[in-house]
Design goal:
There is one protein chain. It contains 10 helices and 13 strands. The strands form 3 sheets. A 7-stranded mixed beta sheet has the order 1-2-3-4-5-6-7. It has a 4-stranded mixed beta sheet with strand order 8-9-10-11, covered by helices on one side. The termini are far apart. By secondary structure, it is of the alpha/beta class.
Length: about 350
Amino acid sequence: MAPQVIDHKGGVWSIAVPIPDNPLGHTLVHLLETDRGPVLVDTGWDDPDSWDTLTAGITACGFAPADIHGMVITHHHPDHHGLSAAVRETSGAWIAMHTADAAMIRRAREARPGQWLDYLLVKLTAAGAPDDHLEPLRAARAARRGRKAPARRAALPDRGIEPGALLDLPGRRVRAIWTPGHTPGHVCLHLEEAHPAQQDARPATFGRLFSGDHLLPGITPHIGLYEDPDDIAPDLHDRGDPLGDYLDSLERVARLAPTEVLPAHQHAFPDAADRVRELIAHHEDRLSDLRTLLRVPRTAWQLATAMQWNRPWDQIPAASRNIAVSEAEAHLRHLVKRGHVEPVSGSDPVHYLAT
């Protein structure tokens, strides 16, 4: 089957690289032509079929895989960074990533056997997870399963991305926009060049935005805690505020006013500012709903079970429940920082109550 490739004109293409067994379906890897050769924005999932699709897509764009000059990775998640090592082996291309996400890859690669399971057990116990959820993790730990942490095989980048700086892409003008929230080092890339379809000499919008997972046309990106296996005793109050970071980053992207957004999933779309308004409203509604739920004391786990998801809680697999709890905790942390929720003194596991 021929790869799904879209020519966005002006030396920009997208290649739909499949994600195995995932409802998202694919990652849109973007190829940007530069004076030193093509550069990829993200690379897709590390899988043989994904690799075949990526290389066929590069060929369909008029280049060879060995021609790739560099890779700019929006964030460290495996559906974006997974094939970076294979591309580097084939072409010798450099890999650029924000230092905050590069640090997460480094910690995961260096984690001792079992450290990730230890972290999950401590974190979920503190969140109030019941024994029937924790017991399979304890059994896996006792059987010495889960020895490889996430991102163990992920390539370490060899270039950093400086927020606000123009990337070293000869012949192109691409500025890095730091947009933490989905991950601590997520970046969007603003192509500061007139859109090929734009005729107005003084347009109200300008350029194109490679938005990674920060801004998607029909999906609300997951905003959970910045997971750190080195933090064996995670504390909800003293660490960062991913949701606050995300909301601030959305405002920053809206002010850019790009003519078109080129996201990593779904499809390209116009009017970034309108989508930003929708996402901010979504999170404000969710925060309001959580304050209502927290009129009675609840743990983070109890809050997650009461929240609205895309299916009933009893139909959500165990691994996805962990992600849901992380999202509940991120919203809790933001409510605590706003002064709308506080922990119940002496509760163990910690319960939270609206103020």
